[in-house]
Amino acid sequence: MKIGIQALTTCQAEVISSWVYEDEYSVYNHHKDFVKDCMGGRHFAFVSGEGELLGYMCFGKEARIPTLEENAYCDDFLDIGLHIRPDLTGKGLGKLFLQTCIEHASCKPVRATIASFNKRAINLCVNAGFDVKQEVTHRNTGYKFTIVTL
User: Fold this and answer.
1) Distance of alpha carbon 100 from alpha carbon 98, whole angstroms
2) Least confident residue range of 28-37, 67-76, 114-123, 128-137
3) Cβ–Cβ < 8 Å for 17, 35
4) In this model, does residue 108 exceed pLDDT 80?
5) Are 128 and 120 in contact (CB under 8 A)?
6) pTM of the model
7) Nearest Cα to 5, choosing from 101, 134, 78?
8) Where are the beta strands (DSSP E) in the chain?
9) Cis status, amide bond into 66, omega within 30 of 0
10) Which CA distances in Å does 98 have to 32, 55, 57, 65, 109?
11) Nearest-angstrom CA–CA distance, 80 and 125
12) Is the dihedral of CA 68, 70, 75, 77 positive or negative?
């Protein structure tokens, strides 16, 4: 599969805001201000050759979570966030999406924050050369997240 990248449009953000991840993956469901929050130029859509929305990525502070731990994020890294459309998860596409995201970031070092239960995503990053750095706690939900760096 070949994927392209384009600046995220309001229409695409509205579609993404309706995506529903099941069970523990519901931590990735979006809050009511998602559409407004992702129009700052740091969100990009993954699209198929036919223009079908496949997922999105974001960069910078938008890819971080609020943590209970102080100084969990230093400014030495570019934070990346990667979301695949719910019906496409678990189908072996993660490597392609991650690789595309890293290439689009066009700089190193990069950092990602992943829900700690999401072993698939953590293993994907480790297999791509990321190092597990620390586990942090989401300030609002109490969920544990793992920070990885490349």
Assistant:
1) 5
2) 28-37
3) yes
4) no
5) no
6) 0.91
7) 101
8) 4-7, 43-47, 53-59, 78-84, 110-115, 131-137, 144-149
9) no
10) 26, 11, 9, 19, 14
11) 12
12) negative
Tokens found for residue 32: 């009511």
Assess contact for 67 and 136: CB atoms under 8 A.
yes
Measure the CA angle with vertex 80, ends 40 and 60; round to 5°. Answer: 40
Strand partners, 132: 148
86 three-state secondary structure: helix
Query: Has residue 74 got a pLDDT over 90?
Result: no
Q: Of how many residues is the chain composed?
A: 150
Average pLDDT over residues 97-109: 89
Tokens 């620390």 identify what position?
134
Give dist(CA 47, CA 25) in Å, integer: 22
